[in-house]
Amino acid sequence: MILQNDDRTLGTPGEMDCAREAIHLSGAIQPHGYLLSCTLPDWVVRHASANIAGLLDMPPDQVIGKRLGEHVADDVLQPLLEAIALLEPGATPQRAAVGNIGALAHLCDISVHVASGLVHLEIEPRTVNAVRQAPTVVAQRMISRVSGAADMRGFHQRSAEEIRQLTGYDRVMVYRFRHDDAGEVIAEARADDMEPFLGLRFPASDIPAQARALYVRNRIRVIPDSRYQAVPILPGRDVAGAPLDLSQHALRSVSPVHLEYLRNMGVAASMSVSIVSGGRLWGLIACHHREPRLVPPSVRAAADMFSLFVSMRVSAAEQAIAMQHESRAREVRDRLALRLSGREDLSTSLIGALDLLESAVPCDGIALRSDGQWHTHGRTPTLDGLPHALEWARGQGADRLPATDHAASWLLPDANEGLAGVLAIRFGRRDDWLLFFRREQVEDVVWAGDPHKPMVATDDGVRIAPRKSFASWRETVRGRSLPWSDADRTAAERLRWLLQERPWQPLPDDAENVSDMRLFRRRHVLSEQKSRLDQLGALLDGLGHLEDAETARIGERIAALEAELRQLMLGNSLS
Fold it and tell me: Count of domains in the chain?
C-alpha cells in the first residue's frame, strides 16, 4: 500500500529480490516425504529425491533409470494408473493410493500429478494421527456446520473454527487480499494464550505476486517444520537442461525467506489453503502452530475439499452483490435512455439527469463537460481543479476508462474538496466527458509490524531478511478513496456504450424514425437481458454444493428457457 506522504513506486532491494525469486524452481522438496518422477508407460524413474533410500533402502543412483515396478508392487501402481487416466497435464496433485512400499513395507499415502511429460509421485509415510474417516465424509460434515451462518462474516468465522478443529493448529485465520494486494485478517480461531491477529493488516510484499500465482495453481501448502533442511531432487535439471518446474508439487521446498519470516513470527509449522473466486486469489485460510506439526494427506484432502466449498460461497456472495449492483445500474440506464429519447439535445438531457447518473456509478459527485462548459452535482473539485482532472483523464487514453482511488495522481492540492477518487467516461463527437468523484476515506490502519520495513538488513549486513517484529503498528492513511470495483467499471462501461451507441437526437414524429428508435430500444433491452444471463451463468459456479435433485431442477428450468427462446426464434423466422 502507498501510504500517506509516501510516493515511492519501487521497493527496497530486498523486496525486489523477493518479488523476483523463482520459488517454483527450488530444485528440492521438504523432508517429510519422497519424490519419484517417471516416464510412462514404462515407469522408468527419471528423478528422485535425495532421501529416497529412507523409503526404498537404496541410494538414488540405484533407483534413477530403473523401472519403478522393481520397487513398488503392481497392486500399488494400478490405482495410480487409474488416477492418471483422469488427470489433465498440470492439474492439481490427486491423493491416488495408499500402499506398502519398500523393503520394510512402509504404509504410505501416494499423490500423483502429470507435468512436463512426467508422472510425479509424492509419497508420504502414514502417521498414527491420520483421519480414519474418508476425507469426503469429514468435509461434508464441516460444510453442513458452516452452511447455516447468517452472513459472510459469520461464515468466515465458522470456517476458521472448523479448520482449527480439523487440524489442531494453534491459530487459524481467514486472510483476505485487498484491492491493493495487502492482506487483512477478517476471522480468527486461536488458542487462548495467543495474541489476537484479528483486524491486523499485512503489506502486499509479505506474499509477492509469484507466490499468489502458485496459491491459485496449488490450493493447499503445508510446512510441518519451518526449520527443515531441504532435500535436493536428483538430477536437478530435466533432459533439456532446464531447472525442474515444481509449481504443482505439494512437497516443494519453499522460499528460505518465507521460512525465516515464519520463524520470526514464532511459527514452527504452517498450512495455507487457498480461497479462489473468479479465477483470482481472493484470500487464504492461514494456519500457524508454535511447535512442528505434521498434517497427514488425508487431513489435507478434507481441508482441500472444504476450501472448494468456501471458495464457491465467496464467489456466490460476490456474484450476488455484483448482480444487485448491475440490477440497480440497469434500472438507471433504462430511465436515462427514456430521458435521452426526448426532444432535448444530449447536453441538455444529461444536465437534467446528473442526479440519475450519480446512481448509475456510486459516487459522491459528478461533473459533466459538454461544449466546453462544466456542470456539476454533489461533491466535485473546484473550477480550477476540474480542468486538471480532465487533463489527467485525457492522459490515460481515450479507449479505456481512466480510474484511480489515489488523490496524488490527479488532484491539485488546493482543489481537493476532500476528494481522492475519480473515474472518467469520454463520449460523443465533441470530446465530452463525465467525471465521477469519490471522497477521501481517512483510515486508521493497524499493521502487523512496520509496513515501511518489510525487509531489514541482517546483523552482518550481508543480505536482506524479513522483518523480525510483528507488533501492532498504527498509521493513519489519507489520500485514498473507496476503490472502484469491477462492478463500478462494468456499469461505467455500459453507460458509455449507452451514450455512444448512436448520436441521440430528438425523436421526430414521422413513423419511420419512430420505428427506428423503437428498434434501437428493443436491441438495447435484449443486450441488457443477455448480460443478465451471462451473470446467471457465472452464479452457477457457486452452486456446486447442491444435491443432485436440486441440480436437476435447475437443469429443467434452463432447458425450458432454452426451448422458449428457440421457439421465439423459429416463430420470427417463419414470419
Answer: 2
